[in-house]
Amino acid sequence: MDVPLAIGVMLWAALMGCAAVTAAIDTALSRLRVKELLETNETLAPRIQLWFRKAREMRAAVFLWHAVFLMATTALSVLVVRAVWRSHPHGVLEFVECAALFVGIIIIELVARFIGARSAPAVAMRFIGVLSWVAALGLPLSWLFMKTAEGIVRLLRLYSPDTHPFASIEEERAATLAEMGGAKGALNAEERAMIRSIFDFGETIVREIMSPRTQITCLSYDITIAAAIQRALETGHSRFPVYKGDVDHIVGIFYLRDILPYWRHELTETLPLLVDVIRQPFFVPETKRVNELLREFRTSRTQIAIVVDEYGGTSGLITIEDLLEEIVGEIHGEHSSESQRPYEQPDRDTFIIDARTPVYDANVLLGIAIPEDSHYDTLGGYAMYKLGRLPREGDTFAEGALEVTVVSVQDRRVRRVKIRKLPVEKEEKG
């Protein structure tokens, strides 16, 4: 092997090593949890915080350098193979080139990324010292390429902040800041929960937070305005879906404020018919994400939507207040009691709660662990699923360390359930 060829082989090995290292770092950065590193590596805290502040830029720079090393390795691989195998036929030469590229790039790439995924903290700690240099050298070009790529995607109308390639990094960084702020007392539990709710907001679908069909108060389109006003006084609601025939055929939304201009008339006979003052209904599917619905509420300047199922029937109703409650928590209206508790607690281990409460909310509220499943959403649905039939008052079943009893049923719907925490029996020592 002559000197130029030996230099070429060594350069090829060095480039391959750099490509493997950048692949491992890129994978490690995508799996890394900065909070854990800060807690376990106080001596490297300044460097970790530098990466934490510049996570997006560093990840882009590492990706750019990895692409450069891969292209250089590919080009040099062809040159080295042709220098060593130049006397062989072209068919053999092409085969050897492909084999070298496969072994040298594909396998090493997979191994490096596997190591980066399995040992993310170790890889990050070993190479965190050079990350600042990598970012500094690659930042101008990586910034240019990122903006170019975003511009192309915007032109194709495929861009969305939720699908940004580095959106997960920004989310993780903000979530980690919230946790660190809570640990240092800068944020209380409610503020941390609100920040986490903002990130979870984009993953929530309408079906999870809507008011189900059975809880909607609707008005028939052929009733009088006086009857609609009376219904509003009875329920305390100011907006009603209006149906024709049955609830599956919603024809409009009645806003109580829309009839205020008519109050100057002394005789109720001068009031228009209900069908004359309703607004066009806004329909959304059950599977729409709530962040998309919020944007549609803003653009359409509406505050209420009828949720339809896959068959076109009315599944429920959702309002802008429901969306806000996903972030800030329960909002009490002027007709609700601030002191009203969502459940009763006769003793320390017993709770009586509304069966319409979602299972997830009940778990958080009561400190229990009812399994979540796609077959049900609420405690009432959970009871029906476990019993395998329509529940009756007094039905009782056990779920792990919990005893669930159906307290009240009305019109085939479970109204309230009692949940009792069973005492944990200590194992007898033999």
What's this model, at a glance?
The protein is of the alpha+beta class and 430 residues long.
Write up this protein.
The protein has 430 residues and is of the alpha+beta class. The chain folds into four domains: 3-159, no CATH class; 164-201; 206-328, CBS-domain (Roll), CATH 3.10.580.10; 343-421, Uridine Diphospho-n-acetylenolpyruvylglucosamine Reductase, domain 3 (2-Layer Sandwich), CATH 3.30.465.10. Helix content is 52%, strand content 15%. It contains 14 helices and twelve strands. The chain has a five-stranded antiparallel sheet, covered by helices on one side. Strand 3 and strand 4 form a beta hairpin. The chain is elongated. The chain starts with a helix and ends in a 9-residue tail after the last strand. Mean pLDDT is 75; it is low at 426-430.
